[in-house]
Design a protein that fits this description.
Order of helices and strands of chain A: EEEHEHEHEHEEEEHEEEH
Shape of chain A: globular
Number of helices of chain A: 6
Bound molecules: flavin-adenine dinucleotide, adenosine monophosphate
Helix content of chain A: 25-40%
Largest interface: A-B, 77 and 92 residues
Mean pLDDT of chain B: 95
Strand order of the largest sheet of chain A: 9-8-7-10-6-1-4-5-11
Low-confidence stretches of chain A: none
Number of strands of chain B: 17
Largest sheet of chain B: 9 strands, mixed
Strand content of chain A: 25-35%
Order of helices and strands of chain B: EEEHEHEHEHEEEEEEEHEHEHEEH
Mean pLDDT of chain A: 95
Distance between the termini of chain B: 74 Å
Shape of chain B: elongated
Largest sheet of chain A: 9 strands, mixed
Radius of gyration of chain A: 22 Å
Strand content of chain B: 25-35%
Number of strands of chain A: 13
Radius of gyration of chain B: 23 Å
Oligomer: heterodimer
Chain lengths: 268, 325
């Protein structure tokens, strides 16, 4: 029995970049950054591809993004890895969205797709809301389970058995009626890489681009529906005094060993 | 009449015990009510836990709602949603506090969306102001704080990050307990069982000296390097989650919210950024040393000693010196 899967993928700033805050604290300097697939979504995508390989069916990748995050590149990567259809909801105002708007706009697109399952990440690395998936599930009137580390589908019975990560290594096994939405945790699988060859042929694939107008919404007006807005951003205030060691690798190593011996942490 | 409104804390419990985050939320709720005179109440969803309900009623709130139903014996999304939706519609609290835990982050969005209420997740602070609600959250892996303004609404839902606030203490005053049988629909998600963690070869939570490695190590074969350092120090090797996700070290070596909580004499973090979920598992270590090439990595915010440098230069130098003596 084929299983169609929708995977939500978000382009987020790649790790290991300097995240700088605008002078006026109104946000991040987004234009200076490089973007790639959100870590959790990469696992969700892989899980979708594994399901397709096992049961047959289609995988749809859906992204809501502004231009500067280079969503087209991300969706080409998705094609190269094996998705059947990539949809970009292009919206410049999406940088100012709250999670209600994000979920609502994605909902307008996903509701018309033929799916048995929706997968997304536990959290987006940049905004850390951990709720877009559950919001979308609620709008679609689907059950969901979050932070899943194992997914077993029984399409004939119209159920899935999943493991949810709780804490301290404890997990919870849950049976969920299908169709359903799951938010995927890292480590559930080992995501594949897209080969250069496949990336090249993915250039020819067509990305379906939709604007808010296509969804019966208006770019600017939609922002009035927000329930939350950013007041300011700032660097966390640090209370602890850290002793930063300076010098060559050897010098800092000597200093560190000395400190640890003085503290009695290291013997000798 | 603003004064009569209520702050409702949703208790988290497992195995007939209240989880710490419940008391942390109660402390924050009381602090918020102190300024404005709101009532504080606690909602406990479950079955066969009257002892827990009784015990919980001594923590200084005004009321405890015991939402009692066989279907609530274990956590179940739809049951929690139905039960809380009913209670919130009935009591119309100004603010609902939920723990930002695996359970809380599962049902909070569903409750909020089904009632069309604003929800702010994973907050480290909040303040009720004239123009609505102001919350503080952390984004970009803890590198940036953001203050959000939630627009005025009849009620707000906030999930609070665990371990940020001190837990409330027991008081002399017992709260009124109100037992309610919630009306529940047919649940579409059903609890099957708990799965316990694997048994460890080495129990890192007992270790006195820990060398912990993160994604900065780059490749599997570089693990050898930190292993050698751990040996030279006479400690054990632990890791952040990505190392375990990649299969480079077993799950039993993972430090953090979903791994082990450790409290060694020395925690040496190498190439670890210091995300909250990691820090939750090690912040009570006696002495924390961090080696990271990024001066802005949040791990330095909790480190006693910091070395801003390439680990591939410092770690070999450390090994060399330790072996010398
Ligand atoms: C529900 C949930 C539960 C989680 N539970 C846990 C948990 O239990 N434990 C856990 O650890 N994480 C957990 N996480 C994941 C967590 O959010 C982070 O993704 C993770 O902790 C990051 O690990 P890291 O610091 O090793 O990697 P990164 O954040 O990628 O940091 C790598 C660091 O290495 C530094 N670096 C790179 N190269 C070098 C070099 N050559 N020399 C020196 N420094 C270098 C970089 O500057 C960077 O700071 C959880 C997440 C979720 C959503
Ligand atoms: N703009 C977006 N486009 C596509 N998917 C998204 C978007 N925002 C959030 N998601 C999905 O929702 C998950 C959780 O995001 P968040 O609730 O923002 O932490 C992400 O891992 C994505 O799978």
């Amino acid at each position: 029995m084929p299983v169609n899967v929708v995977v939500l993928v978000k382009p987020v700033p790649l790790r290991e970049q300097d995240i700088t805050i605008r002078e006026d604290g109104s946000g991040i300097n987004l234009e200076e950054l490089k973007y790639g697939i959100n870590e959790w979504d990469n696992y969700a995508l892989e899980e979708g591809l594994l399901i397709k390989e096992k049961f047959g069916g289609k995988v749809f990748a859906v992204t809501l993004s502004s231009k500067q995050r280079d969503p087209e590149f991300l969706l080409r990567e998705c094609y190269a890895k094996g998705v059947d259809s990539a949809i970009l909801i292009h919206c410049e105002e999406s940088e100012e969205f709250d999670p209600y708007l994000t979920a609502k706009v994605i909902y307008e697109v996903v509701k018309d797709l033929e799916y048995d399952l929706i997968l997304c990440g536990v959290q987006a690395f940049d905004d850390n809301y951990t709720l877009t998936g559950a919001f979308l599930a609620e709008l679609l009137n689907l059950p969901h389970a979050s932070i899943i580390t194992k997914l077993e589908l029984l399409p004939d019975k119209k159920i899935a058995v999943v493991r949810r990560e709780l804490e301290a290594g404890v997990e919870e096994e849950v049976e969920v009626d299908l169709p359903a939405l799951f938010t995927v945790q890292t480590g559930i699988n080992q995501p594949r890489y897209a080969s250069l060859l496949k990336l090249r042929s993915a250039l020819k694939k067509e990305i379906r681009v939709l604007g808010l107008n296509d969804l019966g919404m208006e770019e600017k007006a939609v922002l009035d529906e927000r329930k939350m807005v950013v007041r300011r951003m700032y660097r966390p205030i640090v209370k602890k005094e850290t002793n930063f060691l300076e010098g060559s690798a050897e010098e800092v190593s000597r200093k560190l060993i000395e400190i640890l011996r003085e503290k009695g942490v290291l013997s000798g | 009449m603003v004064r009569e409104r209520e702050i409702l804390v949703v208790a988290e419990h497992r195995g007939k015990e209240l989880r710490e985050v419940t008391l942390e939320m109660l402390r924050k709720a009381k602090q918020l009510s102190g300024q404005a005179g709101y009532r504080v109440s606690l909602a406990i969803l479950g079955y066969g836990i009257s002892d827990l309900v009784e015990e919980a009623s001594w923590f200084g709130m005004d009321k405890v709602y015991y939402l009692k139903h066989r279907e609530l014996e274990h956590y179940c999304l739809d049951c929690y949603k139905d039960a809380l939706k009913g209670l919130i519609e009935e009591e119309n609290p100004l603010l609902v506090l939920i723990g930002h835990t695996a359970t809380g982050m599962d049902f909070a969005p569903s409750v909020a969306m089904s009632l069309n209420l604003p929800l702010a997740t994973d907050c480290i602070d909040l303040e009720l102001i004239d123009s609505g609600l102001k919350v503080t959250r952390q984004v970009y892996g803890g590198k940036v704080n953001v203050e959000l303004q939630v627009k005025p609404h009849k009620s707000y839902i906030v999930t609070l990050r665990p371990t940020v606030f001190r837990p409330a203490e027991k008081t002399e005053r017992k709260a009124q307990i109100v037992e309610i049988t919630p009306r529940l629909g047919r649940p579409r998600t059903r609890f099957v069982r708990y799965v316990k963690p694997e048994i460890a070869d080495i129990d890192i939570s007992q270790a006195e000296l820990i060398v912990s490695v993160g994604r900065g190590i780059g490749e599997r074969e570089n693990i050898k390097l930190v292993e050698e350092l751990a040996e030279a120090i006479g400690g054990v090797l632990a890791a952040s989650r990505p190392i375990v996700d990649s299969g480079w070290l077993p799950k039993t070596r993972q430090v953090g919210q979903s791994g082990k909580t450790v409290k060694p004499k020395l925690y040496l973090a190498i190439g670890i950024s210091g995300s909250t979920q990691h820090v939750m598992g090690m912040k009570n270590s006696e002495f924390i040393v961090a080696i990271n090439k990024d001066r802005n990595a949040p791990i330095f915010d909790i480190a006693d000693v910091g070395i801003v440098s390439d680990l591939f230069e410092v770690v070999p130098a450390l090994i060399e010196l330790l072996k010398e003596k």
